[in-house]
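Reopening closed ticket. The problem is back. First fold of the pair:
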Amino acid sequence: MPDRLSAVDASFLYLEDYTTPMHVGGVAVFRRPRSGFDYEHLLSMVDRRLGLVPRYRQRVMEVPGSLARPVWVDDQDFDLTYHVRRSALPKPGNDDQLHDLVARLMSRKLDHTRPLWELYLVEGLSRNRIAIITKTHQAMIDGIGAIDIGQVIFDVQRNREIEDPDALWMPRPAPTVTQLLVEAATDVVQRPGEIVENARAAMVDASATVQKVTRALGGVASAVRAAVVPAPSGPLNAPTSTQRRFAVAKAKLDDLRAVRRAHGSTVNDVVLAVVAGALRNWLLSRGEVVTPSTTLRAMVPVSVRSDDAEADAAYQDTASLPVGSAGNKVSAYLVDLPVGEGNPTMRLHQVSHAMRAHAESGQSVAADALVKVSGFAPPTLHALGARVANQFSDRLFNVLVTNVPGPQVPLYAAGARMMEMFPVVPLAKNQSLSVGVTSYNGAVYFGLNADRDAMPDVGVLAAMIGEAVDEMIGTVDA
């Protein structure tokens, strides 16, 4: 029997359109090894390890008449070279050119008739570098069992032998129309109300789709609506266009840890205070009115391990979780960032107080309900935040900020050492900016995915993140 998409996963197919492609992405920059690294290297590596992620050879198959949710089936015409692609930058091959390429690639929807992922090898970067860009649809991020393609191709050993597959992969036959209808009828008998919901969702009835997702989320929507008021209006919630811009910023993890120790906060609090400081200066640069009481609301998914105090402490310090491990509890908080506060120390204290208040308040019911929907491996927490954001962005918050702890040891791909890794978090309707943050090997990497029309100055904001980090470091000895 084919594996049927969950209500939540199917909703991301129904809600997707050309202004809001629903894939998450990543940009990993490598130093090219002396032994060389080219497209054939990458293709061979992915081919040998693809058996670890069977979903990456499957496509979505619709049920006739939308009598039930779609199913996952093996792609009979699976073509690895379609999914693993190559690109090259013209001279001089600088970072701005790479970021422009990322923006263009992330603006395009994935082909729903094929497995919902793509991977790009980017050559021609300056200073003997290459990059790997990944795109994975949120419908594939199906909870605690999900494995990100990056977990398959990245390794902690420089030259680990890649074993050949145990056997030649042979796709299982796709179900016939009759089989799909019989299985749909069985589901209808077990859940008679679902046939109406499926038909409405297939007709892109937005209200019916959101209702389905709300029920699947186990009460998250009602809990959040009861707990908060609408987010402030502003330039971060403009109508979403079809194109994106991408910019990055970097910081040293030890610097943020020093700030944490000096002020008794967490590294996650420091990251949020840095984002708040950058947004404050960005608003001022645009001539926006900023008063001492001005706030911008952020949705902040946070991973914890309630049954493991040591792992809890590690995350709070933004230290790495073991590669491939999965947390078992997720908290998604709505935090009012104090962008009106000019003093960086006071900004940090206000953010820390807000995060502690969330942890101690009854709003944690939303976190418990989220756990029922989607556990996560560390590389997929960005996707978890985006999944929630796509339901509530234009009503409840202004910006999504996902902070995912990454490995604090070097990673490699076919002998090439990863130098940097930037997340690309998708936008929801009427959302102009998503900020993905990942720590890796002693550094913290900010990936800013922005609407091209609403935020032509996202590069300015990225530069202001660097300034906000320096400002925060200056409070350590003050």
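Second fold of the pair, where the issue appears:
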Amino acid sequence: MNAEDPWDRTSACELDPVRRAAFAQDLTRALTAHCPGSRAELRGSLARGTADAYSDIDIAWTVPGDRFDTCLAAVPGVLEAVSPLDSLRTDPESRNSRERRLLFAAFRGLPLFWRVDLEIGASPGAHRSGHGQDGPATDGDDWSRPASALANAVAATKAVLRGQPQNAQGLLERGLRRIDAPDGVSGRWFDDIRRLADTAADREPGLRPLADRVLRLAEGHRAQLMWWTFPADVRERVDALVLAGRTIQAVHAMRECGIEPRPELHTCVDVLEGRHGRH
């Protein structure tokens, strides 16, 4: 794995929602300013006020129909002017649409959790002369199954941290199937995420830097991923012991719960620190 990338630190400070909100506003302003008569606005959980620290950034950019193509072509430059791009990919389902495109942007200066989903649409009722019906969906050069699998690895990490292990399992299974890998998920979340990321990079070596970012992301949250690896009854017992101040017994409960390989002592201590903070 590469040396630590300072942009991959996703501590409470780095996941500051105020920072994310300011960045989202910079993006919407830049898009609107680039095309007079267009409108860029937040969608999803940020717009509803229900976002948590892990929520991504959903933006809808509505542009005049006769400028759809030129606005689409300008997107990389407009986004780069706000912050350096790490990757920009097009949803294959919308690739050949004459009126709508969905782009996925990752920025070098943001945590991987904060991907930008940018939907570009032509103004309702806009007429675009010289264009026929939408063509069939195609993958294109900027989209690949391994890249999509890495997106699933990030989403699965997010799901575990939100306490949604069933969602994480589905994301990992779909990601593994996408790259023709055995889709058995063990529930040892760090190991499962690592297997998906490494297999994706093996399938497409050019994705190794992104896969390493995903691995550093999972490593940074290893204690939280381990917490959700324990069965529910073990988590309840550990929390009860933490509340009772019985730290040694709590560590013993984690290490002797039957998980193989047995959790390492330092990982259990990190888990306990997180539980102390939660309580």
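Update: turned out to be a display glitch only; the data is intact. DSSP finds eleven helices and five strands in the chain. The first strand starts at residue 39 and ends at 43. Please close again.
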